[in-house]
Design goal:
Its EC number is 1.13.11.5. It holds the Pfam family HgmA_N. This is Homogentisate 1,2-dioxygenase. The chain is mainly beta. It has two domains: about 200 residues, Jelly Rolls; about 140 residues, Jelly Rolls, CATH 2.60.120. It contains two helices and 26 strands. Strands 2, 8, 9, 11, 12, 13, 14, 15, 20 and 26 form a ten-stranded antiparallel sheet that branches. A six-stranded antiparallel sheet has the order 7-24-23-25-22-21, with no helix packed on it. A hairpin with a 2-residue loop joins strand 11 and strand 12. The chain is globular. The protein starts with 10 loop residues before the first strand and ends in a 25-residue tail after the last helix. Bound molecules: fe (ii) ion. Fe (ii) ion binds next to loops. The site of fe (ii) ion has 5 residues, from loops.
Length: about 450
Amino acid sequence: MTRHDLPAGMIRAASATGLHEGYMPGWANDFETEALPGALPQGMNSPQRCEYGLYGEQLSGTAFTANPPERTWTYRIRPSVKHSARYTRIDLPYWKSAPNVVPDATSLGQYRWDPLPHTDTPLTWLTGMRTMTTAGDVNTQVGMASHVYLVNTSMQDAYFFSADSELLVVPQEGRLRFCTELGIIDLEPKEIAIIPRGLVYRVEVLEGPCRGFVCENYGQKFELPGRGPIGANCMANPRDFKAPVAAFEDREVPSTVTVKWCGQFHETKIGQSPLDVVAWHGNYAPYKYDLRTYCPVGAILFDHPDPSIFTVLTAPSGVPGTANIDFVLFRERWMVAENTFRPPWYHKNIMSELMGNIYGQYDAKPQGFIPGGVSLHNMMLPHGPDRNAFEGASNAELKAEKLDNTMSFMFETRFPQHLTDFAGKEAPLQDDYIDCWESLEKKFDGTPGVK
Ligand SMILES: [Fe+2]
């Protein structure tokens, strides 16, 4: 299958601008798109009869009275009540939700894991999800979970939605296709996708095996951070987010829909594909974003700003300036600061930090934090450069230097992150990680002028 081949029977709208086949540019735009001509009502949302005999239906991602409300009007072959029957509880033992405090796991610590190894066992988007940490409480819609996915098998006549969360997907290996109610997103490493709460989709493998990271956001939706004095440009620019054009399939085949709801999984059986939205308009939609379009801003004379300067997306909490989740990107950039220790400094932080390496080498940890790997520096746990990074950066000649071949990210939350049983016992934990600081020397002996 080549990149732009559609699933058999899928009919897709023409692109809005023609620049990005299958996608419409912009963040939180009020998009409109139709896969059949005239399917989208004009000038109103709920005509007495819709074209083609379609049903009109609203999907609300915020309370009706939120300002601004985020909602999308869909025009579909069947209303969603026909894609939902009686539910049966099912078990997905590796996908955990907060609160999930494991009595014999010690979450207090600095941890690092090797990449989860691929396996010959068939794993789908649902069975291949491995929760590493949880934070907050899914029932009160605060906090998050961090997952690593291992996917080698497409979902067939099987669909999913999470009522609990929006998912931020960060691929590290392989290519996935998200066939959603609102259109198709093809995703590969160096891109991310945001799948909104409540949106039905299936995930296909375009090129596998696939591995990547997911931040499951229980709380308020991700938004673009305010740039403050930086102004109207740089960091993540709205035009670089892409929402899919409408695409639908009219397939009558026995199918299952799995629903994640308050941390539990339920299955329902239906007789057709639920991906039957022929046209839609609104501002509640899935997106993808190319991380290579992220324009980093940094120090141009001395010191360096807090890592919040690299925030791509932020999910607010009820406390101003204190995110439920920040998604932060450490990518290629120039280092030019004078008389400055250039890597991230030593610190303790009330926020807890889960990092993943997408590719290359991370400057504060030249070894050990490898592509596909994960590290966790939990609430108020000190961390910083290892000895090699410290000595190298303390003695380097400070000329302009390109930090190249590097892309790591952080899921940072205001809540402590609790290890799952899987993270503590099954995942390839590096037992010696904490030793990376052991060889740091005491240099102080009271002599003035010694540096
Ligand atoms: Fe940190």
